[in-house]
Amino acid sequence: MVGESDLSRIGISLPENLLNKFDDIIGKRGYSSRSEGIRDAIRSYITYYEWMNDVSGERQGVITMVYDHDHRGLMEAITEIQHSNRQIVQSTIHSHVSDERCLEVILVRGQGEQLKQLAERLMSLKGVESVKLTTIKVD
């Protein structure tokens, strides 16, 4: 079995602005190297992915999303998706963050897989910057 102490070297290509932002973050967080920061980021990504995929059963949660409200047809698409999922969408809060960006919080309740599919559908829309699903099991 391969453990975390068995290291492999990889090479990646990143846009300069992304690398600069990453370097700023690892400096502020006190990492000793990019490698340490990348390992931590990958662990976090894996943990989040595994947690997102463990959404079985009845769940209550929120979907938070940030998007460009000037993107043609986006607000209509978001509204249509919410209306077509009205059995699980309980409420929404919409906030204007800036002239171009909006934050939307969607309160949801239903089967975990339905909530995950809704979040992924919203995530796939052009003009959406980020989507995060957070759920808890309903007792």
Automatic annotation (TrEMBL):
Bound cofactor: record note: Binds 1 nickel ion per subunit.
Swiss-Prot/TrEMBL GO biological process terms: response to nickel cation
Domain of life (superkingdom): Archaea
The Transcription factor NikR nickel binding C-terminal domain, residue ranges: 61-136
UniProt cofactor(s): Ni(2+)
Ribbon-helix-helix protein CopG domain boundaries: 9-48
Entry keyword Transcription: yes
Matches recorded under Gene3D superfamilies: ACT-like. Chain A, domain 2, Met repressor-like
Function of the molecule: Transcriptional regulator.
Family in the record: Belongs to the transcriptional regulatory CopG/NikR family.
Protein name: Putative nickel-responsive regulator
Organism: Methanocorpusculum labreanum (strain ATCC 43576 / DSM 4855 / Z)
